[in-house]
Amino acid sequence: MSYDKSSHLPAPCIIDSGIIVNKKDMQRLLRDLEHVRYHHFLDGNLQSEGEGYVIEVFADSHQSTLVANHALYINVGSFDYLQLHQSPEQQTYLDLIQDFRQLRLIPTSNLLQEKDIMSMDAEAIEAMVTQVLSAKRDVQFDDDDYPF
What we know:
This protein is an alpha+beta fold and about 150 residues long. The chain folds into two domains: about 15-110; about 110-148. About 30% of the residues lie in helices and about 35% in strands. An eight-stranded mixed beta sheet has the order 1-6-7-8-2-3-5-4, covered by helices on one side.
């Protein structure tokens, strides 16, 4: 049995810019978004813009993509592909494209900074728990000294 290596292509590798057509890849990329600015274009003309939070990213042929009340529910099935861009200022933005419709998402939150804040919060919580447990032990020792 022989194996023809030329018929096996490696999976795509997209770094900072490119076109993504795989719905699962689109979902993974969009799920990391939190707070975004959005611009909705139809035939290249700006229809609306605003800010909101990406609440849910899913793939379902029976549900709509919804943008309302500062909330975005994004159905990757509503779009043909996602185009990943890098601005001259090195800011990433994503264009969801379907025929003549384009939904541009510009992240306003920095995932790296948020992870630093979360780890700092975890360290602060750990320090507080340590202090509470230490104080509890001190109280128990004091109670042992003064039996009633």
